[in-house]
């Protein structure tokens, strides 16, 4: 509305100047010189007023943009003016100014929010420009490096010369490890760099993780879970032995002279003694088997690797599974892409891993009429070879998914709990990994990545 009124007034002023110019020319031609001169003066005055109005408007808009550029939102234009077009223009500029101020306040609040998040996370973060200036570093990084404030990468020379060289030569998308040693501790640091652009400037976003801390936490958690399982298994074995021993000891009474009084024993007590000793023997053997399985887990030999046609190995294991589970109707699908795919592995150890996974999958589908076991060997998007064992069984519960690789943890009746932990150890010795994905009631997938 303001621009429309201003536009109309501008047209009227131009038309008046045009009419005055034509009238002045007419009066001068008809020798009415006084009227012609008066119109010429009028043209000069109208031109001056027009230029003054336009300049005033231009200066007002220029002031407005200067204030916005300098983030000065205190500028206000008077809305109580006599000229309607100026009143509406001032009102519009004030509204735009208020809107920009509101957006600026929202952005500042959001920036403070993100900065607070960066301050709280346990990962070091810093942004570096092309000249080596550190534009931002969060408190965790300063604590990790024991140096503050961090303003330039050259300050890292005061911490460690090699650390400075690593950061200075760190390129986009590079990842590097470095062990930082100081008078307090050793930190195994992992650096990752990502290029970003802000306000047209090329920056390098560097994240720093303390692997030593994470490994300590994972190691402690693993020990806690292992001790919990060991305690459970040992207590299950020892408790019956203790109970039976206590019951049997009550059969045999010793008199004041220290002699055993055999006449107090009856035939039932002797039979119970024999049965109790037999139970103690069986429990002891179970405990010995448990210890042996633990020793086999620890004494796993290094892999004797060779190139293996994976399709040939999987075909043999497929036949073996069909023979062992002839009564169970489980459809076994085998897919190898490409068919001549070769793996560099210890055939006996990996066969042991796969047989364990196949058996677990088939056992989980015992109550399922349309059980399907899918075995796939291929190359993933990262160029790494993998074997996937997937079934459509009941799946693994969320509270058990983190426990299944813990030695001696089992959900099966009569299971040893050593199979999956042994499989994980074998994959670790092969320089690979084993991961599990499960959707309860739908499917479970184990992926061996080499």
TrEMBL record:
The chain crosses the membrane at residues 7-29, 35-54. It is an enzyme of class 2 (transferase). It catalyses: ATP + protein L-histidine = ADP + protein N-phospho-L-histidine. The keyword Transferase applies. GO terms for cellular component: membrane. Pfam families: HATPase_c (PF02518), PAS_GdpP (PF21370). Residues 110-149 form the PAS domain. Signal peptide: none annotated. Residues 229-450 form the Histidine kinase domain. GO terms for biological process: osmosensory signaling via phosphorelay pathway. The keyword Transferase applies. Its main location: membrane. One of its GO terms (molecular function) is protein kinase activator activity. It is a multi-pass membrane protein. Its EC number is 2.7.13.3. It is found in: Membrane. Keywords: ATP-binding, Kinase, Membrane, Nucleotide-binding, Transferase, Transmembrane, Transmembrane helix, Two-component regulatory system. This is histidine kinase.
